[in-house]
Amino acid sequence: ANYGPNPICKGCLSCSKDNGCIRCQHKLFFFLRREGMRQYGECLHSCPSGYYGLRTPDMNRCSRCRIENCDSCFSRDFCTKCKSGFYLHRGRCFRGCPTGFAALEELMECVEGCEVGQWSEWGTCSRNNKTCGFKWGLETRTRQIVKKPAKDTIPCPTIAESRRCKMALRHCPGGKWRRPAKMKDKKKKKKNLMERAQKQHSIFLATDKTSQ
Q1: Fewest beta carbons less than 10 Å away: which of 21, 31, 85, 139?
Q2: What is the per-residue pLDDT for 162?
Q3: By mean pLDDT, which of 76-85, 88-97, 107-116, 149-158 is the weakest?
Q4: Please, what are the domains in the chain?
């Protein structure tokens, strides 16, 4: 039976003009729709977003997903699709994937990512393959890939990194340390100034003696 322009009793076994479907036909799901202060029953082949179909001997019903940010679910506590902006992981929805998992953007799911081991100790400070003869150098540490990602498109985190370090031996044993070019230039310039000053002082003394 139809009441008004909308077939609110479609698929019903029993129906009310004011409340819509009260009981549904076999295999259909009863869904209680709310619109403002009004609510009425519908009989649907599949439940709407945010609900899942619960089959019981008495009557099949649409039950609300109890998982936060879930768009559709398999059961009350297991989500199958999250709302926009959230990633699905083991039946739950997350803004970002947990540690050890990577975001698969095309499906908005978290998959097993690239797993790496612990960092090694920092290596010896060196520069140009030498551990002496310079004031500053670089030291490096590494870590190994323990488990490769399920998808080749998922990048692994960095497995090597370097940082600036101070050399333990600035002068190489048995070798002569060479000053950098800039330091040599400064020393040479200072020496030239000293020599010029001494020369001018000698000329002044000689002139002074002659005048006497």
Answers
A1: 85
A2: 93
A3: 149-158
A4: 12-64 (2.10.220.10), 70-112 (2.10.220.10), 116-172+185-210 (no CATH)
Distance CA 168, CA 136 (A): 9
pLDDT band at 205 (very low <50, low <70, confident <90, very high): low
Unique residue bearing structure tokens 């036909």: 25
CA angle 180/182/186 to nearest 5° reads 120
Amino acid at the residue 160: A
| Predicted TM-score (pTM) of this structure | 0.46
Look at strands 101-104 and 109-112 and give their pairing: antiparallel
Distance CA 51, CA 166 (A): 63
The amino acid at residue 2 is N
Cα 161 to Cα 34: distance, rounded to the nearest angstrom: 58
Answer yes or no: are the C-beta atoms of 46 and 53 closer than 8 Å.
yes
Residue 161 pLDDT level (bands cut at 50, 70, 90): very high
pLDDT for 163: 93
Residues 6+ apart with CB under 8 A from 67: 73, 77, 78, 79, 91, 92, 93
